[in-house]
Amino acid sequence: MALYGSISSPNLNWQIGPKTISKSTSSSMNSYTTISLSFSSSVSMGLNLRFNLASPSTRAAKINRLRNHGSPLKVVCIDYPRPELDDTVNFIEASYLSSTFRASPRPTKPLKVVIAGAGLAGLSTAKYLADAGHKPILLEARDVLGGKVAAWKDEDGDWYETGLHIFFGAYPNVQNLFGELGINDRLQWKEHSMIFAMPSKPGEFSRFDFPEVLPSPLNGIWAILRNNEMLTWPEKIKFAIGLLPAMLGGQAYVEAQDGVSVKEWMRKQGIPERVTDEVFIAMSKALNFINPDELSMQCILIALNRFLQEKHGSKMAFLDGNPPERLCMPIVDHIQSLGGEVHLNSRIKNIELNDDNTVKSFLLTNGKVIEGDAYVSAAPVDILKLLLPENWKGVPYFQRLDKLVGVPVINVHICCGICLQFY
């Protein structure tokens, strides 16, 4: 897939620090000079700009004309190809499980299922219930779809998102969902690299490059061994030895680390403190927005195991636009095409109960009462805590909610456009 954007030629300047500048002149009757720019990866990823100026004698006139009139130049960015995910074990399993919803016998009496929350959890729940022949009714309190991937458009037409959303190759259910909706082409895959900012060297970055020719886990091992900026050789050895229990112990070992923080686990394995500071603070923040001394090591090991077991597991893709339109709306269209409903601005005020403490209905703040045969909460845990009926608070199952604490997150959008000008 190719993406096209426009830049204004008056703002184009090849003196911003290009990696290379080359010229070539044709010997034909209509001779011209081509100036090609290839920027280093810190400026752009594989971006090449090429300008054809008819002849040296007209060069100044053309530059002046471009400067005065601002004729737009088209920039073409080509995505990296989609990795071969469809033949991996996890993807095949995810694909089979979702196909059972479509292939199952149609219910003689479809259930009306009321779902609170139109984030990706609520949307996918409604999608698969509709696939199975039931009628989902999806309620969203706000005026926008997406939950944690929601976005808003300002008066200038720019979109503000709730953070950076990455779609890893190790997400078989999400990747399968894109395929079922026919929107695989909306994922823009990047090179197979993980790039970390270096706290000790502000403004500098360190890369872990995964070679395409090697299978997992060799590609990940190679990426770690080749990185000499963040990890010294003694640190690499200690880190590798520390990971051995996780690699050999399997899922049982991973689950046993639930009560151990990332920082505690690192110390126990003798992994240097600097590795935690340089690598795992960033990973902990990315996974759960908290520090390594607060995050369960189980979360880290689950991610690392998937990355090490799957060749393309750590490969990243980004959505080609805002999530509400490019991802959420196709799910809504699918739900509605099968008879389901999606309602925005439908905030729940109370969960009304029957005499036996089962759910009777959802009472909305606008006074509407929504009844169904079954009810699902796909809302954040803090919202569910606020809505929890008094009669449920003594139930051991719901008492477990007390241990779950939401993490407040503030997103700051910083525009870092490169100003390009002709001289």
From TrEMBL:
The cofactor named in the record is:
FAD
Enzyme Commission (EC) number? 1.3.5.5
Q: Any one cellular component term from GO for this entry?
A: chromoplast
Reaction catalysed by this enzyme: 2 a plastoquinone + 15-cis-phytoene = 9,9',15-tri-cis-zeta-carotene + 2 a plastoquinol
Keywords from the UniProt entry: Carotenoid biosynthesis, Chloroplast, Chromoplast, Membrane, Oxidoreductase, Plastid
Family to which this protein belongs: Belongs to the carotenoid/retinoid oxidoreductase family.
> What is the name attached to this protein's record?
Phytoene dehydrogenase
